[in-house]
Design brief:
Layout lengths: L1 H26 L2 H9 L33 H14 L5 H4 L2 E6 L4 E5 L2 E4 L3 E6 L2 E10 L3 E6 L6 E4 L5
Length: about 160
């Protein structure tokens, strides 16, 4: 314990002597400041970073499979070629009959998680967005519908699980 006390006293005296030296040097710093003011200061030049974003070279190290760095014109051409090779799905494939409820007075159909009675119209959610659907007739194992106000009737069949 005694050694610790001696160490603290020694450290305090060192700090006080360092402060005294700093104070004495500060009083003699006036001539140095005058010579520094007479010297012209060169302007500080901050270098600017230059980044070259060449889409043909390199890849994102964190997401190597990303398509963000692909040339947009090449993607547009590939997408156009893909749509001509694979035309859009017919709307009837986006609509699925999930069930038919046969009540005493009327039948109800469950299409894309929306309940319809014969003659009802509503919008149903599909993978490609909302679709206006009218339920024309509900049969024992199928439903006749009109999509987006078309005149052509389409029949949705109930898929039975085996």
């Amino acid at each position: 314990m005694n050694q610790r006390l001696q160490f603290h006293r020694l450290a305090r005296s060192f700090i006080l002597s360092a402060g005294l030296v700093a104070a004495l040097t500060a009083t003699g710093a006036a001539p140095v400041a005058q010579t520094a003011a007479s010297v012209t200061k060169a302007p500080i030049v901050i270098p600017q970073s230059v980044f070259v974003d060449d889409l043909t070279k390199g890849k994102d190290p964190f997401f190597p499979g990303t398509v963000r760095r692909v040339d947009k014109t090449a993607v547009a051409a590939a997408t156009a070629a893909n749509t001509t090779a694979n035309p859009a799905k017919p709307k009837v494939e986006l609509v699925q009959l999930k069930g038919i409820l046969d009540g005493a007075n009327r039948r109800l159909a469950l299409i894309n998680n929306h309940t319809f009675a014969a003659g009802e119209q509503a919008e149903v959610k599909t993978l490609s967005g909302n679709l206006r659907l009218q339920c024309v007739e509900i049969r024992a194992h199928s439903v006749v519908v009109l999509l987006n106000g078309e005149t052509q009737r389409r029949e949705l069949h109930l898929h039975e699980k085996h």
